[in-house]
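A further point concerns the way the authors explain their paired sequence and structure data. Showing the layout once, in full, would remove most of the difficulty. For illustration, here is how one protein appears when written out as sequence plus structure tokens:
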Amino acid sequence: MIRRRQIISATSLAIAAPTFSFAQSKNAAEVAVDAAKKYSGTEISIVWEAGLQSLDPLMYSGPKWEKLTGIKVKVVEVPTDQMFTKIMQDFRAKAGAYDALNVIPSWMPDLVKAGALEPLDSFVDKFGYRDELQDIAPAYRDNQMKVDDKIYGFPDDGDVMLLYYRKDIFEDPKMMAEFKAKMGYELAPPKTWKQFSEIGKFITEKMAPKTYGAGFFRAAPYPQYMFQERFRTEGGKFFDAGTMKSTVNSDVGVRVLQEMLAENTFMPPGVEQWNFVDNLANFLQGTTAMTISWPPYGRWAAGYGTNEEAMKWVPKTQVAGKVGYALPPLGRPELGVGFALSVASTSKKKEAAYLFLQWLNSKQTSLERVQLPYTLRDPFRTSHYASAEYRKLWPDAGAYLDIIKLSGERGLLDLSLLQQDKYDEAMSKGLSSLWGGTEPKAVANNLAATFDAITEKVGVVRQKEMYAAWTKKPGSYPAK
């Protein structure tokens, strides 16, 4: 998740036996460990997102893998907005500095077309991992694992946007009665953006400045994921499929920008500058009654794991036991960012790197990792959602896992084209200009022009093919 780069400073702490023989007696984690022991005494490198996320291989999985296999793991921390560039630079230089990679799924087609990622199917079959991959939730397995029907990465992070709301406010009898009398419907998690605005305004009028109706992160690059989701759920399309001319400046696009800007008026002053941590702090301290973010907010709002040394940067929650979980308005949340585990095509230790990834991603090890409070890896397997162990972590953990599961089933994919990072950057800059005072129509027109320029540079025909392939995926646009 790009969100982690905001918290880097706060976390600077500390040829094998046939496949069938593995499958008959051992799980995927055990198979990987046994096969990897022949590489004992060597070192592999893995690119990981700088910040909290890197504490997984630095403090937990890396040391554990070395103890189990004798293979040392060198963690190369890179800020998220530099990861794509660093991976491509290493590939083009044929330097072989990286063995394993964390890849944002929307980048995967671009990296595969360039030749930077190693296809994994032969390893998957050699080490008996194909069956266990079926446990990865379909939203991630079917959309974030393959390019042209070949496996290039193991989905490893269940990123999805969730709505968090204050149950004590929404279920307060006085608030419920007054809201019903004024608006004519029940006070409940909003099903539409119109309801979101009406509920947010009502709570702000009643409770501000102690509590405002809502708060969002507005600082780049976070809002672009919310724009991607909302633009599509309200009926927008990014491009004309025939010409590849951008249509983000359609009436839908302009209206969405207008609505997003208007919502700031019932949020706390200065919300236009809020980053991931600002938004989290205000929600945990009770300043906002609703917010939308990734799954870690739900864990931290409950107080889970926040007594860990690495979590001292998280404000002490004032809302534990008072937070409900729901789908965002219109019910098709963004599967924002996420990570997949891949092998670098230039690696000289591909099999050793692959075995580490199979072990990391396995049912057994991944369940341990998604329960680590400090690493920001979110549940992504059906077995994670059903885990009795996870469901006991705090009183509402079962409801939390249920909404993550449902959100994944209904989730929308991030736009994924050649040079996707350029389109993402354009959306981030456009939204920053919106908060800065540029009129919504002008923002939409500028964004469409930038999209068109990027498409022309990539090549209209090439990009049209990529867009056509992306739109065939079930999570590209909401079904009619």
Summary: The longest helix spans residues 440-458. The chain has two domains: 2-158+337-387, 161-332+403-480. Confidence is low (pLDDT under 50) at residues 1-23. Residues 59 and 116 are 28 Å apart (CA to CA).
